[in-house]
Amino acid sequence: MSRAFVKEQDSVDELPDRLISEHPNLVTKEGLAQIEGEVQKLDAAHAAAQAEGDREAMATTARDLRYWSSRLATAELVPLPADNDQVQFGSTVEIARDDGRRQTYRIVGEDEADPAKGSISYVSPLSRQLAGKSVGDIVKVAGAEAEIVAIS
Question: Which residues pair with residue 57 across a beta bridge?
Answer without folding.
Answer: none
